[in-house]
Amino acid sequence: MKRIGNLYEKICSLDNLYLAYSKARLGKGKTHGVLLFEKDLNANICQIQNELITGTYKTSEYSIFKIHDPKERTVYRLPFMDRVVHHAIMNILEPVWTSIFVSNTYSCIKCRGIHGAVKHLRRDLKDIENTQYCLKFDIRKYYPSVDHEILKSIIRKKIKDNRLLDLLDGIIDSAPGIPIGNYLSQFFSNLYLSYFDHWLKEEKQLKYYYRYADDIVILHKDKSYLHALFIEINDYLVNHLNLYIKSNYQIFPVDSRGIDFVGYVFRHTYILMRKSIKKNFCRRIAKLNKQRITLEEYKQNICSWLGWAKHCNSRNLLKTVIRYEEIF
After folding, report:
1. Could you give the C-alpha distances from 275 to 110, 121, 196, in angstroms and in order?
2. Measuring CA to CA, which residue among 3, 14, 79, 6 is closest to residue 52?
3. What is the C-alpha to C-alpha distance for residues 309 and 17, in angstroms, rounded to an integer?
4. φ, ψ for residue 246, nearest 5 deg
5. What residue ranges in 178-277 does DSSP mark as E strands?
6. Nearest-angstrom CA–CA distance, 183 and 187
7. Is the pTM of this model over 0.90?
8. CA R_g for the chain
9. Tell me: the pLDDT tens digits for 27-54?
């Protein structure tokens, strides 16, 4: 694999840093950190550039807090200046790293989000004979479990720019595992499993394989094959990536249970919303149906669920719970 150098100067350029600033502030323009940064915007951009060029940039202290959405997670938040640095790095590295990912890797990749996964899985389930059984699993405490030395070695398979490698090493070592909340973390998480993806697709020659972050689905016509494959997968993850599969992994017939993946439940002939999403949708609708609001206000309050409903067999659900027929 060809390794790429001469990237660091592109990251440090003023044009790239201003672009990174504009991306980092999207949706956050009124927050205290952004407003403070913008009080002396040019000086702050120049400070970032100077620290990067001289090699004196160090990741700031994190503010750490917990969220419950739906399960407890520890979130690491950096000051806005550090987020600009992360965007500056990804402006240059995103096309480099995206070129490594197999086509069935989703999550945080342009044009390959949840609905890209839905589209591909829906298409492949038309091959009923060869998708009778599903192996589904995810990684135990994936983000906190990422081994820094292994991640650094994976990065070095594609990048040979020493100044950039030093910068990335410092960001990686700034927190345990991969910190949830960092912009770079979503790319690190995909990168860490990228060669595992290639092993499954190229060496094991899996046709029906899908990964969204650390949530993995494999389809095959032979249940015994999936049991044997699971043992090999477990060995690979432990020995090469120091990762462990959750004990709730499943191997099951697709039509008897359905594949719970990326917010939907897939069967060969139809797709439904995940039960928890549907419940939240129905609770919101029940409250709205008791209020005197316009059709436009009604739609605005449920637009995210309508987005989910658009990609599955939900017409009967919408007809049952929604007050306005114009919506569906």
Report:
1. 27, 19, 31
2. 14
3. 39
4. -60, 150
5. 208-212, 215-220, 250-253, 259-261, 264-266, 271-273
6. 8
7. yes
8. 22
9. 888 899 999 999 999 999 999 999 999 9
